[in-house]
Amino acid sequence: MASSSAEGPKAPRDRISAKSTADPILRNALRYTISAKEYETLHKYIISRSKVLKRNAPTVARVEKLVERPGRDDYNAAAVRASLRVFLATGAGLKIWALLSERILGSAGNGRRKVPLWKSPNFRLSLSLSTILLLHRILFRFFTRLRAHLLTPEARPFRQRNKKTSKTLTSNLAPAIGASLAGFMLAVYPNDQLRVTIAIYTLSRAAEFGYNLAEDEGWIWGKRGTVSPRPFISPILFPSSTTLPSTLSSIAPITASAHPLITSLTCATLHPSDPSCLRTYFSYWITIFPRFTRFFTVVFLALSIPSYRKFYNSPVHSLNNLASLILKYSTFVAGAIGTSWGAICLFQQLLPKAFLPTQRFFLGGMVGGLWGFVVRKDARGEFLYSVRASLDSLWKVGKKRGWWRGIRGGDVWLFVASLMVINVIYERDARAFRSGMVRRGISSLRGEGLRDYVGEEEKSVLEIEEEQKSN
Tens digit of pLDDT for each residue in 284-325? Predict the structure, then answer.
């Protein structure tokens, strides 16, 4: 007993506590959910204002201790955070849109067959977009580091043995091209119209940025069937005669009341109550132009609400610009629609019946599109949308008529190629992207943060010039 008491109390053994096991889980959960700087902002404006949240939530110092790791960057964790946020935001947005379309727009959502979550188009779209962002950041970082490593003196033997491979991997465009391979994850989403629309939109933006770069660098500044040549016979004057071929019997309710002086089936269909094409065209302008003016007044007034400060600082100038924009768009839309339809009657009167019998409708649309000259400085976005819609329509018509065949996953390949072009243009000269928001988006896609380097550079130049002027 004495000997045992002389030895003294034994040292306590290390025990695995709940706190010691919870810290790694909490640390990883926080690292891949929120950064220390973001948590500080969240704590300042939200958590600190609630007693319950402030009592139960960890402090800013504790979060910084858990999240920040000295000597190691936060690039991969930031990529995962951004990817998770895109996944959740896209999923929530699609869910809200489904509810709105079902309850407000009246789409039939209850009759749809329920599918598992992993087969849901909304889930797969969210997964596709978030994975593209994650892989794009990781691949861009990988190829950037690989290029830097291959350019070191220690990698000279490898460069000498593999000259072509080294030349490819050490190019300044290698990270931009390599990161674009993330675009193949668009294939996660099912092959339907939305995937084709995404590919066409990316292609149009790549073409737009490529044109801007070429402009800045100074590089630039068959018939199918015939129409019957028989004239239109008025059903009012000759009620017992066959006025329409059997293939056009569906438009008989329109042409049955056509004016007796009309001798063209086109005119009888477009303006059956008036035999004069020119008078119909002028009547169209008198009727429709005030309606478009009222419509665009409401639209542009609503769009100008966020820039109310401009109206406050210079009301006369802002109102003149607003009025000019309303009149331009009203003239453009009214003229494009009216001329496209009016050109059909005009070509019917001027052109021989056998000359471009079906293609004249497309030619009329081209003539109507010339009204875009009125808004050439203001409607670039609308023009690009028309190009995307035209490409989509041309692809479907050509595929239906056998002009070309689709290839499996062709829209995905088109998306990847367009993403490569966008990345290469951004790497060469980011000024080709006229919008600062687009430059911030591409910078975030690369993992460089929401930064507009061109805007920051222009701002610093202006500050230097103002400082020099003041001195």
Answer: 888 888 898 999 899 888 888 877 777 777 888 888 888 888
Contact of 169 with 147, CB cutoff 8 Å: yes
Cβ-contact 86, 129 below 8 angstroms: yes
Residue 388 CA, chain-centre distance (Å), reads: 11
3-class SS letters over 135-158: HHHHHHHHHHHHHHHHCCHHHHHH
Coil vs helix vs strand at 302: helix
Query: Distance between CA atoms of 137 and 131, rounded to whole angstroms?
Result: 10
- pLDDT value, residue 14: 45
Instruction: Give the whole-angstrom CA distance, residue 241 versus residue 260.
Output: 14
Q: Which residues of the chain have pLDDT under 50?
A: 1-7, 11-21, 110, 222-230
Q: Rounded to whole angstroms, how far apart are CA atoms 316 and 319? A: 5
- Residue in this structure with the two tokens 């675009």, named with its chain if needed: 183
Say if residues 30 and 63 touch (Cβ distance below 8 Å).
yes
What is the model's pTM?
Answer: 0.63
